[in-house]
Design goal:
heterodimer, A: 11 helices, B: two-stranded antiparallel ribbon, 15 helices, 3% strand
Chain lengths: 307, 449
């Protein structure tokens, strides 16, 4: 049970916290139209890049130690997706770290395009991998299910991260950047709600029902997407940003939790290790909370510019 | 939902040294959606390909780990230098210490960027290419890696972000403490990785039940001499690498008289002291490792191991012997008044790659010396490798290694550029309107409150 909580917690944490970074990266050149505006958006990202991606590093560690069977099987069937996830992750990070390390218009533009492309590719491959886990392990007989479900979950992930990222940028910036981010968030909201609903419907239609959970989980995903959009939309319009951020975070977490429950991976027994890791969780959350609290304001002259 | 089905994948159905059959996996047979992969063949006959899948998987792991290692050496070696200068800055509030912190800190960060991305690639390699390792020893081998990724690295990275971007917001003592925590969690990471690697070399603290290793004695696993003694050796190597970078860059600036004499003389002295400690640790703990390496039968020693080990021992001695005159020369700054100091500065810059080459030799000795085993006496590498075809693994090798090699070269060029630019105006810790480029006006009021 502890293993499952650790795995779902780290994956859901990554999905929303790094999801914000992915959405920010994907919209970098739309929110920021000049080099200075883009540098400001990257400054808004600043401390959250490392604080977001560590959740997936942690999740992969939990997978390795707690769920070696699942990791082995999923990596085997979805090998190209895993490689794509790695490549896009590396490129996103490289783009953010290297973009401002030397002057030059071509250098900057080049790395910005890398950031945008990789920040779309990363949720695309991560969402696809989650969908693949649902319908390739155990293998669904219908080829339609095996293609449609991962494609829809991949697209959902792109839309959800876009909503998360633009809402996050709106919270962390001001003036013209905030206006543009809000506009993009409003436009992406129906897409994320619609694609999540489509994924859930496709799963219900194409995958034979298996126990009571499958009757509960897809409606939960639909509810998560639509409910968060219904709350976030007016909040974005009234510029109640923290309310909007809360709504889209809940809307991002629930589908990941639902998918994890549907997978119900069997953990390897390692009682001592589980307890050691669980005991460390408060410290980890405290460190993360320290970062969120310190950088909760829109960027200003108090913030350090590095990326 | 999950039903036991025997996997037809040949590599997993081997037997261990103890004769216990490895577990066949109580999972449904995974399906493949990509028909171009011929890796689903139930039995791999003698391969006619130029490279076998096992070799391709090992080469991929070796190259990725090698790149990761080169960056980790600098992260762990430069970390204490930055922490020492920041502590001096917090104590004295002198500008020279602030500049040194920012200059070395910036090099630390640009190096860290590649360390982390190479590490990301490495973390998934075990599941991608060595699933047999997870079958047999996943619980034991995975435990230290889970502690590393979930605790040590998680804290290290989270706090590093706080350090970089909280530069103008945190109290100076808290800010200094945050960096010391980054350094400490970095070393904790290294220890966790050495516990995992030590188990492969010298498996202890476990028992085999139905072909699967379970931890029986966590203390023995953690205090494994193959982990503890190796950690001492690796820490020595890291300090040496950091020291050579600091000394080499400082000597370059002193030779060219770039106008930061005090900063670089202080850095050079710190580097020499650190290097002396590193040489002592690397050589001392290096020889101590023969205590467990010679235990138990080693089979199939590759000649590469002998050559790499020989060069490493020779190089280690040279560094060890060189440390004493260098230490003596730093007493009351004699080094900076020597008549032939410019030649010495040039030499010190030229030898920066030496500890890196030696570290790679050491790593080759460690990893090739373990072959043909992935876990000595327990699991052969060929039995641990996935059933992917050689072509599949070669494609991912080309993609991942090509990517990381390209990024590594870009990063080294940038590091060299930043090192040459010197501590005049590092981006790290600058006020926002100094950190940006001239054509990048930021979209917030650029005046301090």
């Amino acid at each position: 049970m502890i293993w499952t909580v650790l795995l779902v917690g780290s994956l859901a944490g990554w999905a929303v916290l790094d999801g914000m970074n992915q959405g920010l990266g994907a919209t970098l050149r739309q929110v920021g139209r000049t080099p200075g505006e883009r540098r400001t958006v990257l400054t808004a990202l600043g401390p959250f890049l490392l604080a977001g991606e560590v959740w997936l590093v942690a999740g992969a560690g939990v997978l390795l130690a707690g769920f070696p069977e699942l990791e082995k099987d999923l990596w085997y069937v979805a090998y190209p997706l895993v490689i794509t996830l790695l490549v896009t992750w590396v490129l996103r990070d490289a783009g953010v770290w290297l973009r401002s390390r030397r002057p030059g218009v071509a250098w900057r533009n080049g790395w910005e395009r890398v950031i945008v492309a990789a920040s779309v590719g990363l949720p695309l491959s991560a969402g696809g991998l989650l969908g693949a886990a649902l319908v390739w392990l155990p293998p669904q007989p219908s080829l339609t299910a095996r293609v449609v479900v991962p494609v829809l979950t991949a697209l959902s992930a792109v839309a959800v991260t876009r909503v998360l990222g633009t809402t996050f940028v709106a919270v962390r910036t001001s003036a013209v950047l905030r206006e543009r981010a809000l506009r993009l968030a409003g436009r992406a909201l129906p897409w994320s709600a619609g694609l999540l609903a489509a994924s859930a419907v496709a799963y219900v239609v194409l995958v034979p029902a298996d126990g009571p959970l499958t009757a509960v989980l897809p409606p939960l995903v639909v509810l998560a997407g639509s409910g968060s959009a219904l709350v976030a939309r007016p909040a974005l319009a009234d510029c109640r940003l923290h309310r909007a951020l809360g709504a889209v975070v809940v809307g991002g977490v629930l589908p990941v939790v639902a998918a994890a429950i549907a997978l119900a991976p069997a953990a390897s027994p390692a009682p001592t290790l589980e307890l050691v890791l669980l005991a460390c969780v408060p410290v980890l959350l405290a460190a993360q909370a320290w970062v969120w609290w310190t950088f909760r304001h829109p960027v200003s002259s108090r913030d350090a510019v590095f990326y | 939902m999950l039903q036991p089905i025997t996997s037809p994948r040949a590599p997993h159905s081997g037997t261990t040294l103890t004769g216990a059959p490895t577990r066949l996996g109580d999972h449904p047979e995974p399906s493949r959606i990509f028909p171009w992969d011929p890796g689903r063949m139930p039995v791999r006959g003698p391969s006619v390909a130029l490279v076998s899948a096992v070799d391709a998987a090992r080469t991929q792991f070796a190259l990725l780990a090698g790149f990761h290692f080169l960056f980790v050496l600098v992260t762990l070696g430069l970390g204490p230098v930055v922490a020492i200068f920041q502590t001096r800055w917090a104590l004295t509030r002198r500008e020279v210490h602030e500049r040194a912190t920012r200059f070395w800190g910036q090099l630390y960060l640009v190096n860290y960027a590649l360390g982390i991305v190479a590490g990301i690639l490495l973390e998934l390699q075990f599941g991608l290419h060595f699933p047999g390792l997870l079958d047999v020893a996943g619980e034991v081998f995975g435990a230290p890696l889970a502690v590393e990724t979930m605790v040590a690295f998680f804290l290290e990275s989270t706090l590093l972000g706080l350090w970089v971007f909280g530069w103008h917001q945190l109290n100076r003592w808290v800010h200094t403490l945050v960096f010391w925590l980054v350094v400490i969690t970095g070393y904790a990471s290294a220890f966790a990785v050495m516990v995992a690697n030590g188990f492969l070399r010298h498996p202890v603290g476990y028992e085999m039940v139905d072909g699967v290793a379970h931890i029986t004695d966590a203390a023995t696993l953690v205090l494994n001499p193959a982990a503890v003694l190796s950690l001492g050796h690796v820490v020595g190597a890291c300090l040496l690498a950091g020291a050579f970078v600091v000394v080499g860059v400082s000597a370059w600036h002193l030779r060219r008289e770039t106008g930061f004499d005090e900063l670089f003389q202080r850095s050079l002295r710190t580097g020499v002291a650190l290097g002396a400690v590193g040489a002592l640790l690397a050589v001392g703990f290096g020889f101590s490792q023969f205590s467990y390496v010679t235990q138990g039968a080693e089979s199939g020693q590759s000649p590469v191991v002998g050559v790499a080990l020989g060069f490493m021992i020779l190089g280690g001695f040279a560094l060890f012997l060189g440390a004493f005159p260098m230490l003596a020369l730093t007493v009351s700054g004699a080094l900076f008044r020597l008549p032939f100091r410019r030649a010495l500065y040039g030499f010190l810059t030229a030898v920066v790659p030496v500890p890196f080459v030696l570290a790679i030799f050491g790593w080759l000795t460690r990893e090739i010396g373990r072959q043909p085993w992935v876990v000595v006496g327990l699991l052969r590498t060929s039995d641990a490798t996935s059933a992917h075809s050689a072509t599949t693994v070669l494609i991912s090798l080309a993609v991942l290694v090509g990517l990381i090699a390209t990024l590594a070269v870009i990063d080294w060029v940038l590091l060299a550029r930043l090192a040459r630019l010197g501590p005049g105006s590092p981006t790290l810790g600058a006020p926002p309107w100094h950190a940006r480029e001239a054509d990048e006006p930021l979209t917030f009021a650029e005046v301090s409150r």
